[in-house]
Design a protein that fits this description.
Family (chain A): Belongs to the GatC family.
Distance between the termini of chain A: 34 Å
CATH architecture of one domain in chain A: Orthogonal Bundle
EC number (chain A): 6.3.5.-
Shape of chain B: elongated
Shape of chain A: flat
Distance between the termini of chain B: 67 Å
Subunit structure (chain A): Heterotrimer of A, B and C subunits.
CATH topology of one domain in chain A: Histone, subunit A
Radius of gyration of chain B: 30 Å
Helix content of chain B: 40-55%
Largest sheet of chain B: 10 strands, mixed
Helix content of chain A: 25-40%
Number of strands of chain A: 3
Order of helices and strands of chain A: HHEHEE
Oligomer: heterodimer
Structural class of chain B: alpha+beta
InterPro entries (chain A): Asp/Glu-ADT_sf_sub_c, GatC
Protein name (chain A): Aspartyl/glutamyl-tRNA(Asn/Gln) amidotransferase subunit C
Strand order of the largest sheet of chain A: 2-3
Chain lengths: 95, 496
């Protein structure tokens, strides 16, 4: 699979990363290298192997359903740039 | 051309846990803004999610109730998008290997007096966290963010596109709504957003196998809106196709005030969520013994109870459906029918009729009904043994209700039940039916003497005049005469 410069720019945009033309070109080379490796790996027959979803071979631990947190809003909001009426204020977004 | 509407639904059911899915913050509704948002919900650096056993348990319960496969291992994934009410920049959801896979929902639809059954297949049901809330007004160019809802556990239930009309979609949503409350995994409160529907709607020529291009309508928070939105959307698509146009795959919003759907975003600028397994969460293992444990605690399901009601009590599908609307309702009915086993249909009529109406009127549900099933059964027994007429019974019922309500104890909390309440009211007010035939004959005679005109009309062949005379007798008896008996005596006297 070959990656285009537009693909790189689109992914950067989705990830909200600002990159220059120069950086985009370098990233394209690096990503293409990674895709080359993936292609090599995909040639291996893995039909009898269970897909690995985590690097560690352990299972998720669960916690009991109980409220353990207290209200620390004041503390958390002390580092927020702007708050009003208990809300965090951010630049206006409307979808 | 004849068109067929094809509908699939995605329902987000908020799970009724005490704490959030990945943190120990409370999920209680209505707290002050951000009072229930802890470090994990705020996505402060260095925090890690820890999965709530209660949320998984509820998902298993649902899976078992719909006959689905419970996946083990099940995997959590990151769904990436940017929005200020999602502080991590991704939502923890499931992509491959959701907890619940497959399954089906059985629908009973009563439409225009006809009873139909239908099966809707499920694709999957997966666990995920809810996002926070953005408030766009009142902050002078800024948006206010409340993260109390962030991290609230949701079960997203995805159906196959098996529905063919808005009526079927509503029946499916209602059945699902009943089920999640029945098995106690979700409170079903639609105003508070605990149960929200998205509808995928497409149309195709009748008889065609190929699915048309679909549009997704977001956030329908009432059954009425669901119905209206689907009807509008299907009409809109048919019009476009009939004018030779093509449907754009889109996400649309329903505007309840205008009763129409409008485009929110089209496929070109559709999100690319770049799902991948969340490295912060290990695979979830659900053991066979855990599933067995959950299965043991599962109550009799509405579907099973409905067919039992039809079988054992001889009720119609319509009655069985109404009485199994929720567990409190069915429990109340069974308690009444248990006391008056000779007439389950009469019990059904009163539970669905008077009791429901009085409860509705007071905005109450069956679990807090003031009147005990035994007290109602006693009243119904008095109709059956001819002590009072059905009409008088309604009056007695009203008085029983008032007296029982005055104590403000629900039937379940009542330690001693005064079963003679109906009898006392009947006796103290002399409401017993006049069944002494000589007393009735005397009444009838008086009415005949007082209404010679009606008598003449009847003799001239006017059946209407007969009914007028029956009415007069009932009035003279202050409603306490047995109508069948009055009919008989009157007819005998008139044809003498």
């Amino acid at each position: 699979m070959s990656l285009s410069l537009d693909d790189v720019k689109r992914v950067a945009n989705l990830a909200r990363i600002e990159i220059s033309e120069d950086e985009a070109c370098r990233t394209l080379t690096q990503l293409s290298g990674i895709f080359g490796l993936i292609e090599q790996m995909q040639a291996v027959d893995t039909s009898a192997i269970t897909p690995m979803s985590h690097a560690q071979d352990v299972m998720q631990r669960l916690r009991a359903d109980a409220v353990t947190e207290i209200d620390q809003r004041e503390l958390f909001q002390s580092v927020a740039p702007q708050v009003e009426a208990g809300l965090y204020l951010v630049p206006k977004v409307i979808e | 051309m004849q068109w067929e509407t094809v509908i699939g639904l995605e329902v987000h059911a908020q799970l009724s846990t005490e704490s959030k899915i990945f943190s120990g913050a409370s999920t209680a509704f209505g707290a002050a803004p951000n009072a229930e948002a802890c470090t994990v919900d705020l996505a402060l650096p260095g925090v890690l999610p820890v999965l709530n056993r209660g949320a998984v348990e509820r998902a298993i319960r649902f899976g078992l109730a719909v006959g689905a496969k419970i996946n083990s291992p099940s995997i959590f994934a990151r769904k990436n998008y940017f929005y200020p009410d999602l502080p991590k920049g991704y939502q923890i959801s499931q992509y491959e290997l959701p907890v619940v896979e497959g399954g089906h929902i059985q629908l009973q639809i009563v439409q225009d007096g006809k009873e139909q059954e239908k099966t809707v297949r499920l694709v999957r049901a997966h666990l995920e966290e809810d996002a926070g809330k953005s408030l766009h007004e009142d902050f002078q160019g800024m948006s206010g963010i409340d993260l109390n809802r962030a991290g609230t556990p949701l079960l997203e239930i995805v159906s196959e596109p098996d529905m063919r009309s808005s009526a079927e979609a509503v029946a499916y949503a209602k059945t699902l709504h009943t089920l999640v409350r029945w098995i106690g995994i979700c409170d079903g409160n639609m105003q508070e957003g605990s149960f929200r529907c998205d509808a995928n709607v497409s149309v195709r020529p009748q008889g065609s196998e190929k699915l048309g291009t679909r549009c997704e309508i977001k956030n329908l928070n009432s059954f009425r809106f669901l119905e209206k939105a689907i009807d509008y959307e299907a009409r809109r698509q048919i019009e476009i196709l009939e004018d030779g146009g093509a449907i754009q795959q889109q996400t649309r919003l329903f505007d309840p005030e205008k009763g129409e759907t409008r485009a929110m975003r089209s496929k070109e600028d559709a999100q690319d969520y770049r799902y991948f397994p969340d490295p912060d969460l290990l695979p979830l293992e659900i053991s066979g013994s855990w599933i067995e444990e959950v299965k043991k605690e599962l109550p009799e399901l509405p579907q099973q109870m409905r067919s039992r009601f039809e079988h054992d009590y001889g009720l119609s599908m319509y009655d069985a459906l109404a009485l199994t609307a929720d567990r409190d309702n069915s429990e109340y009915y069974e308690a009444v029918a248990g006391k008056l086993s000779s007439d389950p249909k009469l019990c059904a009529n009163w539970v669905m009729g008077e009791v429901s109406a009085y409860l509705n009127n007071e905005g109450k549900s069956f679990d807090v009904c003031p009147l005990s099933p035994a007290q109602l059964a006693q009243l119904l027994l008095r109709i059956k043994d001819g002590t009072i007429s059905g009409k008088i019974a309604k009056d007695v019922f009203r008085q029983m209700w008032e007296q029982a309500s005055a104590e403000s104890i629900s039937w379940k909390n009542r330690k001693e039940v005064d079963e003679s309440l109906a009898d006392r009211i009947i006796e103290s007010q002399g409401l017993r039916q006049i069944s002494d035939s000589s007393a009735l004959e005397k009444l009838v005679q008086e009415v005949l003497t007082a209404n010679p005109k009606s008598v003449e009309e009847f003799k001239a062949g006017k059946e209407k005049a007969f009914n007028a005379l029956v009415g007069q007798v009932m009035k003279a008896a202050r409603g306490k005469a047995n109508p069948a008996q009055v009919n008989e005596i009157l007819r005998k006297k008139l044809t003498e």
